[in-house]
Amino acid sequence: MKKIIASVLCFTMCAAMFAGCSSDGSTTTAGTTAGNGGGGDETTTETTTMTVGTGSISLKVYAMSNEVPGMIEEYFKRNPDVGAKYTVDATVSNNDDHAYETKLNAALAAGGDEAPDLYVAEADYILPYTQGELSSFAAPYSSFIDNVDGKISDAQIAGYTIDLGTNTDGDLVALCYQCTGGAMIYKKSIAKEVLGDDSVEAVEAAIGAGTQKWDKFWEVADKLKEKNYAIVSGIGDIWNVLEKAAKDPWVVDGKLVIDPMREDYLDIAKKLIDGGYCNNTDSWTEAWYADMAGTGEKEVFCFFGPAWLINYVMANHVVDEATGFGDWAVCQPPVGFWWGGSWLLANKKAIEDQDKKDLIAALVEWITLDCTKDGLQYAWANGLMNEAGTKDTVSSGTVMAMSDGSMDILGGQNPFDIFVTATSYATAKNKCEYDADFNGYWTGEVKSYANGEQPDRDTAIANFKDKVANAGVEI
After folding, report:
1. How is the chain split among helix, strand and coil, in percent rounded to 5?
2. DSSP conformational letter for 26
3. CA–CA separation, 450 vs 323, rounded Å?
4. Does an H or E element contain 91, and which?
5. Residue 38: pLDDT over 80
6. Cys staple from 64: which of 100, 240, 359, 362, with CB 3.0 to 4.6 Å?
7. What is the DSSP string of 142-194?
8. Where are the beta strands (DSSP E) in 297-408?
9. What is the mean pLDDT of residues 253-281?
10. Residues near 112 by Cβ (< 8 Å), separated by ≥ 6?
């Protein structure tokens, strides 16, 4: 419970910096800032509220974005009788400097009126809420959804999402509505020029798709370098692959394990920078976005990510022919991986209230398990949840098979089959509750080493081990 207590104390000390949140969705800003992904800019931690429905029965929701509250709003629109019976008050806080986790942990520990009835956790920090010290708050899905195992089977829910949502007693306590298997997103015009063929089959053969090796990737990198192209934007693009491609978690039986895939990041990052194979950008910075739009130092051949990277990130920067709109395509990566996702959890205390239980059951099932054309999964996959028609891969294989994933940014390609295949590589066995901290320690040391700020790789590893030891894990 030490981490919970620390979070509560931290939240208590910071609480005075938060003004009250209004029910009209106005923004309340915290008095602290945090750097955004090493870019050097400061971002403000914000908390907002969103109220849905007009009924007398109140349900409290905590989320790190407007995504889930927006889904609830859509459900109420489709079911006005529910909106007349219930009011949902959603507290939304981004997670800069762990702000959302701190606020959620404090609310769960406080209990009573402060506690959320339904809450969301992301892949980077899901395990403490499903299998770690905060898992005692989460209600088994079987306690509020009838025949949940049968519905999971019918929906063909991605296995790794179930593993991450299952507690140590074997009870499912969280489900994800997205499926985030990763692919390689490449620029067709560059493939045509450098490889002589821009087809998915030709590019997959060239980069060694599915081999779980990087040999052919480097062969392509050399060919691209000769034409003054970068194969990736920055070293972080490869980390997103290696982190989830690892077989072992950071900690096994209380001891540190550095999986070979994660250790490879040291050498791959160093080679990318020293060899001039990338633009050495940081993810989530303007330089990274410029590479997506083709306006960076060197034009970039590929990015690695799930469908959301295309639809919610690249699409904001690749906006016309000049920036490559329609010139991208998706293929299998050399090494399989997954990246991201958000899980829904219900508070055990909320389930004790029959009215709350009824609404939680209806919402969670509609968002995660309903594989009809009336469910959120179908609407999400087919771009029916927003005016832009943005599509995404969802956790239900049943829904994916009945959906059209064609995207204009990809020149009309439907990548859903590729993303479904990519999900077959996804495993949760490499995850542990130390991920958020240890990933930060490791990537920081690798970045320093790759940029020549440390004398050798052994020093980078030793520095990482020192930080892990200080966190109380045996080396």
Report:
1. 45, 15, 35
2. -
3. 30
4. strand 86-93
5. no
6. 100
7. GGTSTTHHHHHHHHTB-HHHHHHTB-TTS-B--EESB--B-EEEEEHHHHHHH
8. 302-305, 328-331, 342-346
9. 97
10. none
- Mean pLDDT of all residues in 335-350: 96
323 within 8 A of 294, measured Cβ to Cβ: yes
Q: Would you list the domain boundaries of the chain?
A: 2-179+340-401, 183-337+406-470
5 pLDDT exceeds 50?
A: no
Q: Please tell us whether the domain made up of 2-179+340-401 is placed in CATH 1.20.1600.10.
A: no
Number of C-alpha atoms within 13 angstroms, CB side, residue 190? Answer: 24
Instruction: Return d(Cα 121, Cα 130) in angstroms, integer.
Output: 9
Fold observed for domain 183-337+406-470: D-Maltodextrin-Binding Protein; domain 2 (3.40.190)
Which amino acid makes up residue 112? Answer: G
Determine the 3-state secondary structure of 378 from DSSP: helix
Average pLDDT across the chain, whole number: 90
Count of CB atoms within 10 A of residue 231's CB? 25
DSSP H helices in 392-433 = 397-401, 416-423
Tokens standing for residue 50 = 């969103």
Residue 130 confidence (pLDDT): 97
- Interhelix angle for 67-78 vs 354-368, to 10°? 100
3-class SS of residue 32: strand
pTM of the entire predicted model: 0.86
Tokens of 70: 């927006």
CA-closest candidate to residue 143, choices 372, 364, 396, 374: 364
Q: Which two tokens stand for residue 395?
A: 């956790």
Q: Where do we find the tokens 């790759």?
A: 450
Check if the beta carbon of residue 272 is closer than 8 Å to that of residue 232. Answer: yes
